[in-house]
């Protein structure tokens, strides 16, 4: 399963060499939040539009624009090209007209489009991949006729902005980077042809690999192998916690991906640094593969991470790092960012040249991450870290699960907004008299199905603890009683509703598979009965 989009390379025929058009990308909807004024820099990329499914509607093949007589030809070319790719049932006309509106007024002449290539996005695990069918066209009128919000780039300027983004007022998206890279030597990702991934910006490869994590089922392995475009050769190597020729982050793969990891490690330079954002097994499971294929590899992590990993680091040279530590990778400086919240030893890594921030589990490609209270995770640290990451103002966020995010300020502000809204609802419930976990959850999550309430417990505890640390709880609120209420009393209160929910589902499927439904229904009933019996006995005792 995948979704599709159409994109266009508009080549300027008035200049020598390869110069193409990029358009200002639409920002995600506003995340206005009091006191937070973080805004992402403008992002420019190839003009593109989603290819929507027609689903039974018939396609109107009349010209897209009366001013542009070639538009019907374009529709025919695009339709036949994508049919050759085995793609059918898309509203091609709609996508073409949206792209033409981005490119220029209809009166500007373009030559008929020609198919360039299909770019298949890797499967990140949390979101459907978006595959892009890219066409090319020529533009042969004075470019001053193109209105604002459009820029012309060549391969060199694109690379300059990508590898020195801080010096520029705009950012460049992955499709434009791809268009430009066809005119420079093959990227790094070409080394791992059998493994689907993404190299963006240049020198930073992200490969989602099978892991034990849920629901993504994949952990992104990030490889920093800086291109020789902007070496920042350091004079004083002693400033660095570690130096190497290449760095990988979070080898957390299992199963078939272990063979892929072995292949990757073998193909990389021997002077390899392995950076761990934190100790969770879905970030460290591949370490034995790394050790086997490169015994000289050096492990870098926070002291708390090493402590929790125990013997799993055996055989590695380990270097303890923390926020502010600097690394030198092939003459290129990376900075370690302290990022507690998910766990207390959680770290991120920042490439200031490309503005790429690898955030570990602080962010996810989709949704928000769970904080691990058993490993020192807490809301106070999480929110402070989020603000610190906003202050960095990165170009791209690379989470360890899901697609990299091109709107970091938007995503991070959204996290703070989401958590603050939830916390204020919890405080209102507490001021309304709620004192136990069940009372708070049944008020705040009244609109959420009951079977999800146990999963919400961890978040509620984190928020109540955060309110406590900040002295926001009423005086008569007892943290001791609250913590006690999170254990068996909460389970007992939730159990009838959750088991009813579990019982109703098999019943609703009775027609589909009567035997298994009856068996699962009886099982649930027996389980509830057994737990109730055990509980009653304990109370009597
Ligand atoms: Zn984790």
TrEMBL record:
Keywords: Membrane, Transmembrane, Transmembrane helix. The chain crosses the membrane at residues 518-536. Gene3D superfamilies: Ribonuclease Z/Hydroxyacylglutathione hydrolase-like (3.60.15.10), Winged helix-like DNA-binding domain superfamily/Winged helix DNA-binding domain (1.10.10.10). It comes from the Eukaryota. The keyword Transmembrane applies. PANTHER family: ENDORIBONUCLEASE LACTB2. This is Metallo-beta-lactamase domain-containing protein.
């Amino acid at each position: 399963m995948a979704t599709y989009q159409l994109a266009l390379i508009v080549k300027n025929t008035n200049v020598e060499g390869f110069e193409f058009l990029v358009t200002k990308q639409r920002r995600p909807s506003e995340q206005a939040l009091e006191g937070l004024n973080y805004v992402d820099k403008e992002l420019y990329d190839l003009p593109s539009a989603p290819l929507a499914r027609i689903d039974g509607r018939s396609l109107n093949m009349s010209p897209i624009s009366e001013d542009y007589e070639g538009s019907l030809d374009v529709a025919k070319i695009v339709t036949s090209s994508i049919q050759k790719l085995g793609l059918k049932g898309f509203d091609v006309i709609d996508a073409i007209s949206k792209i033409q509106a981005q490119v220029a007024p209809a009166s500007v002449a373009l030559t008929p489009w020609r198919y360039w290539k299909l770019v298949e996005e890797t499967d990140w695990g949390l979101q459907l991949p978006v595959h892009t069918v890219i066409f090319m066209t020529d533009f042969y009128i004075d470019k001053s006729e193109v209105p604002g919000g459009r820029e012309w780039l060549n391969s060199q300027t694109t690379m300059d902005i990508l590898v020195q983004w801080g010096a520029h007022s705009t950012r460049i998206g992955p499709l434009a980077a791809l268009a430009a890279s066809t005119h420079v030597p093959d990227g790094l990702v070409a080394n791992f042809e059998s493994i689907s991934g993404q190299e963006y910006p240049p020198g930073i490869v992200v490969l989602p690999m099978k892991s034990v994590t849920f629901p993504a089922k994949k952990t992104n392995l990030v490889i920093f192998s800086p291109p020789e475009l902007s070496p920042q050769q350091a004079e004083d190597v002693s400033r660095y916690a570690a130096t190497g020729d290449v760095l990988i982050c979070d080898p957390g793969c299992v199963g078939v991906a272990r063979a892929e990891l072995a292949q990757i490690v073998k193909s990389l330079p021997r002077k390899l640094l392995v950076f761990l954002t934190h100790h969770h097994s879905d970030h460290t499971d591949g370490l034995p593969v790394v050790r086997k294929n490169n015994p000289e590899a050096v492990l870098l992590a926070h002291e708390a991470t090493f402590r929790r990993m125990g013997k799993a680091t055996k055989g590695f040279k380990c270097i303890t790092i923390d926020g502010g530590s600097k690394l030198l990778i092939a003459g290129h400086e990376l900075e370690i960012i302290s990022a507690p919240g998910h766990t207390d030893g959680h770290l991120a890594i920042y490439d200031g040249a490309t503005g790429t921030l690898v955030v570990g589990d602080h962010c996810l490609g989709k949704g928000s991450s769970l904080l691990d209270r058993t490993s020192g995770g807490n809301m106070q640290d999480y929110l402070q870290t989020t603000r610190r990451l906003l202050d960095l103002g990165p170009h791209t966020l690379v989470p360890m699960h899901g697609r990299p995010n091109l709107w970091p300020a938007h995503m991070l502000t959204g996290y703070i907004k989401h958590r603050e809204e939830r916390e204020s609802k919890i405080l209102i419930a507490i001021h309304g008299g709620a004192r136990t976990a069940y009372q708070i959850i049944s008020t705040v999550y009244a609109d959420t199905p009951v079977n999800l309430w146990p999963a919400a417990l961890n978040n509620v505890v984190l928020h109540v603890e955060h309110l406590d640390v900040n002295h926001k709880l009423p005086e008569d609120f007892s943290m001791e009683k609250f913590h006690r209420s999170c254990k068996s009393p909460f389970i007992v209160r939730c159990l009838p509703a959750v088991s009813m929910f579990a019982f109703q589902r098999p019943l609703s499927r009775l027609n589909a598979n009567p035997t298994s439904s009856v068996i699962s229904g009886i099982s649930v009933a027996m389980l509830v009965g057994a737990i109730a019996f055990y509980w009653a006995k304990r109370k009597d005792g």
